[in-house]
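Summary for the steering committee. The consortium agreed at its last meeting that each partner would contribute one worked example illustrating the joint modelling workflow. Our contribution is presented below. We chose a case with several input lines so that the handling of multiple components could be demonstrated. No manual editing was applied between input and output; the record is shown as generated.
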Amino acid sequence: MAERVFAMPDLGEGLEEGRIVRWLVAEGATVELNQPLVEVETAKAVVEIPSPFAGVIQALHGSDGEDVPVGRPLVTFEVTGGAVAYHAMVSVDQPSSGPVPATPPVRKLAKELGVDIQTVRGTGTHARVTEEDVRSAAEGVNVTEPFRAELGVSPLPVVVAALCRVATDHPLINARWSSEAILAANAINVGLAIDTQRGLVVAVIHDAQALGIAQIAAKSTRLAEGARAGSLTPNDIAGATIAVSNTGSYGSEAGTPILAPGTSVTLAVGVIADRALVVDGQVVARPAATLSLTFDHRVLDGAAAGRALTELVDLLQSDERLRDLPR
Amino acid sequence: MSDEPEHGAGTEPVRILAPDGSPVGDADVGLSPEELRELLRWMVLARRLDRECVALQRQGELTVYPGFEGQEAAQVGSAFALGQLDFVWPTFRELAVALVRGVDAVQYLQYHRGTWHGGPYDPRATRFGPICIPIATQLPHAAGYALGQRLDGSDAVTMAYFGDGSTSEGDFHEAANLAGVWRLPMVLFCQNNGWAISLPSSEQTAGEIWRRAEGYGFPGVRVDGNDVLAVHRATARALERARRGDGPTLIEAMTYRIGAHSTADDATRYRDDAEVERARAADPIARFRSWLLAAGHADDRFVTACEEQADAFALEVRTGVIATPAPPAEWMFDWVYADPPPSLGRQRDEALG
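What follows is the complete predicted structure of the assembly.
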């Protein structure tokens, strides 16, 4: 069994969204290929969308009357057979296969902190992964706070600016899959997942690599307001090459966001809160956040994604490097 | 809408089978029982694929798709009459003709998937020209091709497809006039499906399309486009006439577009359901199947086998379409100019990084 996500297609010629008129199936239902799933109204027509898969409906994303942008998940299926998932939680494969040694409580902790335990280098007996190993892998962000407070911006613009810097050195995280080739983008267009009453909207800061933190902050405020007011232009939601989901804004520690079309990486920024961190051998309370990366395995493998994520964490933890970012 | 004349009012079209499948004319159109069964097989296959294509568009696998449901007899009946070297100039709604000509459906659909302009099938090998989106522009091309066929000393004929809406275009007039004055080896095959997008044929033209042939100096015929036998006979006769050097024929096949103009169109906004229901009652496949069974040329087992084959074919095409990779982006630039201007080079560099 494999999970497949069916995104809202462009039902006309260049349409931006579709409105759910009514669902014709329920969650948990078994559907056949081409069985009608949902009636959707676009600017051009009311159409019935037939199921692209045979399988079980895991989740219906959106309720009657809701507008779903083209490319946003509409239905999640559990599909029988050799379906290939097109996104994956960051999981850096160890050269030696098989699970790394760790006790069940440490595995549980790793799961809670959003750490893929396979990626952690164990320092215990027989390279066993210890609780400390997991906690240090959970990447405490502890210098960003004073820096962003100094600039008078929220943490997100700092993360976006840092991500752009990292993407410049790791172009694969700002690339996309095109069946025949991996296409690296010149510009870094950062899609921001914005929670609105009508659902999640991915609004785009174009050419973010050319902007300072203050400009990124101003743009993200404008986009967030526009998304909530429904006044974004098509250009505001088009062309993302990489995405950031501020899962912390609604209190989540970590997230496994879905990739937006045209992107290969989505960074989830968990909630920033005081955590017990080990600094110089002492457990201290420090503000920290969990960063998780969803990425397209066809574009970059776990090692490449892991290197980029480590680089991002290093940057965010270095006062000196943060101050080097364009203001 | 009630004060407008109904689609198909006026001259009664030539018909061999009544809508209920009972013969009203000579049903011997020169086809063997095996060939008659082939007609049904193609029509069932074409309709099944047409519906799959609409589903593929709704699933985001095709960008836009113009359905032809209801026009299977007009397309299959005419295409089946073509000789191997005859050349087809299609519109964008002739997928059934393409199938009969042997065009690979997955290649054909790459146009609608947006991965290849015109479809990567070989028009020379299949004798089926590139899909033509602009209305009626294929008709002057067809006339020119027909002239070329004659200059080559070939006895092959040019088959030009178009719709009722095309006949309001200047290109139709120019092509028909040249066909007449040069007595070109050409058949002008109009599928009058009642609608030019949202414009009913009654508002498209005040006269009957087949009658225009007289003004151009060649014969015209109005045929029941939902009667595959009548369509086949009319087309075979027109091809034969063109082949022996007697010039063109205009065929107006009266049919109906059951679906919307395309997947980007909502026909319920401008058309009565009752009209569509009346058209469904004149279904070309049910009509011919009913006659074929009654005449003893096929049995229920054959009908079931046709449907099973069509299901398997649709699934095969679906799989092929979804698996079709996008061609390399540089091809967009490589094949536009023999000597690309510098501005295009800059765009190319920008796009390809």
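Chain B has one domain: 33-328. Residues 33-328 of chain B form a domain with the Rossmann fold fold (CATH 3.40.50.970).
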